[in-house]
């Protein structure tokens, strides 16, 4: 600030105007695909390709028919895909949050070789691309019966742990040790210290990690596709893929409708947690 | 009833630096240089052979410069730090391996360590809730403690919305709600500004009369130590230097370190030579021969002194201005003088030694007619009785055994 050229108020106002315009354009570009999906999900299939960016007209408007087609498509009910997606997302995220926050607390507070090794491994796991391990993984998952929606969260825990532990450890280290010592004197054992004192303080990080994991698991395609028995269990991304495959032709309108259905929960979730997301990200920025 | 007894308590931190040296080369050597702690094969000795019996309801203050092991000692009493050697008993029960929550102690931390996600009320109720105290009793105790500390109007706030002084009160409140046997405090006032610190100090004195606990209080501020403590433990580099009442440590410091540490401004030190003559002891220092009073002489005789190089010490308050031609008067030049209000602190140098004199301004009249200008000459004297003698080699007080 100090070495900036002194600016007149007028030029500052002009700068602001330019910035506003630039960012508006960026925002529009950013949301355009989502808007396109929303628009096209209400258009008849034939109009999706020809008038992609146009609003639905009287002629092209399809009403709810795309949604109905999409949801009753093929021989797999959409609602079970939705249910499995939700189940896997909720279970995985919960498992990651609980296990990783506990592990991170231990790693951050216990000063031993073992912890350092574990921490390094966790960091390292973030660097290994999924594609490198996916085939051995799907075999292993099959053998260990991790191929159902109730057990696949364990696989997600393995993949999510790296980032989650990294973020939690950073935050735990910023919590003064004295607070936990005060808890120990006040009458908490390790378990109560963690759940009554540490966990509530971790709230901002819990939220930001939770959001990252929810987005990732909800949208993930490859892992459930490789691990789950596709005839029995499908998540929404897999179901969308099947809409495309089965007849050789693609019902784009129905696809858009389902994509919209898949996006809506994430958007609702984002809007309801917006306050915490910004807080959590900021907390991570300062303390991470 | 809570007597706390520390017998040969020792704390050794395993030497981490040794292993780190391989990685960081030069850097690791630095922290060792800073402190004068003893380093053994096992590690850094942070507290060495600490012996103290604390009576029920006594207020003991641990005081010493930074890094001398005060907090470590306190944390060993609390059970937050393992005890490397010796025995800690509270009420006759050995506590070395007992978990902090089962020692019936409470602690106030320097950083307050309040739970940020709980309201003031919940912070104070937390230890009671964990002990399954009935809800109505919790409410009564919390409100009573809040009343005592004057924080009733903040009970619904989170700690974030409080000032330092208010947070400190909450921390004290959380410690006293459950009537602990022993109340440990680690520099509770050092984050407060000077005025608030004085105020809180007075409140701790009041508080202590109201509650039935044994206090162990850590500070590096000797004023706090002198005003609060029934007994003061002065530590340096992990070793106890002296244990005594405020009067004792002030009037009969065990060694040079205690003499210099207790008292503001510091005691004035100068080298001299003690000689036994036919007419009694004579201190030869600062170009003057000072005859030592017979009482002190007797004590010196008992200590077996005949001829000895000593470091002598005189408290600034015990020096009076004098005329240059008076017998026993010393002369020097003024370096700086500081007007403190009711007194003037005059810094003078005599024969290469720095002296501080505290001169009450009330006595100012024309009689001595001096102005304390920088560079002006000054003469002063002190009663031979006021002089403390320390062995020049070991620093020990010669008279006090
Ligand atoms: N984990 C540790 N490993 C090695 N040395 C340590 C460790 N913790 C503390 N020490 C050393 O022990 C000594 C005593 O520390 P302590 O915290 O008790 O000092 P203190 O008297 O409370 O000082 P202050 O007034 O600064 O709080 C210090 O010199 C410190 O370097
Ligand atoms: Mg300390």
TrEMBL record, chain A:
<feature type="transmembrane region" description="Helical">
    <location>
        <begin position="21"/>
        <end position="42"/>
    </location>
</feature>
<feature type="transmembrane region" description="Helical">
    <location>
        <begin position="117"/>
        <end position="138"/>
    </location>
</feature>
<keyword id="KW-0472">Membrane</keyword>
<keyword id="KW-0812">Transmembrane</keyword>
<dbReference type="Pfam" id="PF00528">
    <property type="entry name" value="BPD_transp_1"/>
</dbReference>
<comment type="similarity">
    <text>Belongs to the binding-protein-dependent transport system permease family.</text>
</comment>
<keyword id="KW-0813">Transport</keyword>
<dbReference type="GO" id="GO:0005886">
    <property type="term" value="C:plasma membrane"/>
</dbReference>
<dbReference type="InterPro" id="IPR035906">
    <property type="entry name" value="MetI-like_sf"/>
</dbReference>
<keyword id="KW-1133">Transmembrane helix</keyword>
<protein>
    <submittedName>
        <fullName>Sugar ABC transporter permease</fullName>
    </submittedName>
</protein>
<feature type="transmembrane region" description="Helical">
    <location>
        <begin position="252"/>
        <end position="271"/>
    </location>
</feature>
<feature type="transmembrane region" description="Helical">
    <location>
        <begin position="81"/>
        <end position="105"/>
    </location>
</feature>
<keyword id="KW-1003">Cell membrane</keyword>
<dbReference type="InterPro" id="IPR000515">
    <property type="entry name" value="MetI-like"/>
</dbReference>
<dbReference type="GO" id="GO:0055085">
    <property type="term" value="P:transmembrane transport"/>
</dbReference>
<feature type="transmembrane region" description="Helical">
    <location>
        <begin position="193"/>
        <end position="218"/>
    </location>
</feature>
<feature type="domain" description="ABC transmembrane type-1">
    <location>
        <begin position="82"/>
        <end position="273"/>
    </location>
</feature>
<feature type="transmembrane region" description="Helical">
    <location>
        <begin position="150"/>
        <end position="172"/>
    </location>
</feature>
TrEMBL record, chain B:
<dbReference type="Pfam" id="PF00005">
    <property type="entry name" value="ABC_tran"/>
</dbReference>
<dbReference type="GO" id="GO:0008643">
    <property type="term" value="P:carbohydrate transport"/>
</dbReference>
<dbReference type="InterPro" id="IPR027417">
    <property type="entry name" value="P-loop_NTPase"/>
</dbReference>
<dbReference type="InterPro" id="IPR015855">
    <property type="entry name" value="ABC_transpr_MalK-like"/>
</dbReference>
<dbReference type="InterPro" id="IPR012340">
    <property type="entry name" value="NA-bd_OB-fold"/>
</dbReference>
<keyword id="KW-0067">ATP-binding</keyword>
<dbReference type="GO" id="GO:0055052">
    <property type="term" value="C:ATP-binding cassette (ABC) transporter complex, substrate-binding subunit-containing"/>
</dbReference>
<keyword id="KW-0547">Nucleotide-binding</keyword>
<dbReference type="InterPro" id="IPR017871">
    <property type="entry name" value="ABC_transporter-like_CS"/>
</dbReference>
<dbReference type="InterPro" id="IPR003439">
    <property type="entry name" value="ABC_transporter-like_ATP-bd"/>
</dbReference>
<protein>
    <submittedName>
        <fullName>ABC transporter</fullName>
    </submittedName>
</protein>
<dbReference type="InterPro" id="IPR047641">
    <property type="entry name" value="ABC_transpr_MalK/UgpC-like"/>
</dbReference>
<dbReference type="InterPro" id="IPR003593">
    <property type="entry name" value="AAA+_ATPase"/>
</dbReference>
<dbReference type="GO" id="GO:0016887">
    <property type="term" value="F:ATP hydrolysis activity"/>
</dbReference>
<dbReference type="InterPro" id="IPR008995">
    <property type="entry name" value="Mo/tungstate-bd_C_term_dom"/>
</dbReference>
<dbReference type="InterPro" id="IPR013611">
    <property type="entry name" value="Transp-assoc_OB_typ2"/>
</dbReference>
<feature type="domain" description="ABC transporter">
    <location>
        <begin position="32"/>
        <end position="262"/>
    </location>
</feature>
<dbReference type="GO" id="GO:0005524">
    <property type="term" value="F:ATP binding"/>
</dbReference>
<dbReference type="GO" id="GO:0140359">
    <property type="term" value="F:ABC-type transporter activity"/>
</dbReference>
<keyword id="KW-0813">Transport</keyword>
<dbReference type="Pfam" id="PF08402">
    <property type="entry name" value="TOBE_2"/>
</dbReference>
